[in-house]
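fyi for ur records
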Amino acid sequence: MKRISVLIILFASVLRVSAQESVEASIDSIQMFVGQQVHLTLTSHAKENAKVEFPAFKPTQHITPGVEVLGVLEQAQQTEDNGFVARSIVYTLTSFDDTLYYLPPMTVKIDGKPYKSKSLALKVLTIEVDTAHVDQFFGPKDVQDNPFQWSDWSLSFWLSVLLLVCLALTYYLYLRLRDNKPIIKTIRIVKRLLPHQKAMQQIEQIKAEKMVTAEDSKAYYTRLTDTLRKYIEERYGFSAMEMTSSEIIEKLTATQDEKALSELRHLFLTADLVKFAKYSTLINENDMNLVNAIAFIDQTKQENVPVEETIKPQLTEEDQRSQKARIILQTVITLLGITSALLLAYVVFTLYQLLY
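which gave:
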């Protein structure tokens, strides 16, 4: 039993000793040339909830006379098997004097208790210069031209080729567009005669041709009734040229007074008798019918209406196809022009970067 107790006590002591907090220091190289850099790693082993304070150095601060601290970098924590956590800080050091430096132990506080690392050594070397043969000493080299590499120029070259193709295609399409005469169809605004003005012109022409006194009554009444039919068609908006006399009178009954329609009805009846029944009329009867036609026009005319008419061009199917083709051609030329400009700007920028 005594032996077992002693073994247990010794084992517990070993575990307690191995589980104590500790600090380690290491350097990645014990020697370097003047102006080079080395890294000193300081690692603490402590419990996870322990408060650890590493030595703080500012940039260019000396860790020891002649050795400067350039930077400090904290590493990620690592969990160990005994439940402890390893925390590490890396110090970047440099020196400009060739000598052997003694790096003193670095103190780390764990829960306020100081722990020191081991000391380290750093040897700084200088480059040997042969002062006896100064003619073999070569100073710094001038700026050397980089060797030609196709990979640096290939993109600019192929983009330049694409640019030339775009310019050639743009010029070709421009010639096609220029040689093809444009379709110019303008919208015309013309002054038009009102229905009663047209009718009165026709009646004046009938008077000028003396058709009232002519022997051919059929031609006279045909001309007179056609003039009235066209007037009625334009004035009231129905197809009077294709309707019979009775249909026209019936259509006008809802809008005109009975007296005007009575005279117009008599005129159309006389005209039908002359044209279809070979009825013979007297000169005074022809004059009366002409006066009745003029009176009907004066009673039903509209004067306060626009006298200008907009005539829009009517394009044929071939003209429409040609116009669409020109629009497409103009769009393609514009897109090619924009693409060429962008390619030119990019190629110039790339060449400027390569040359300068």
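Residues 14-18 have pLDDT under 50 and may be disordered. thats all i got for now
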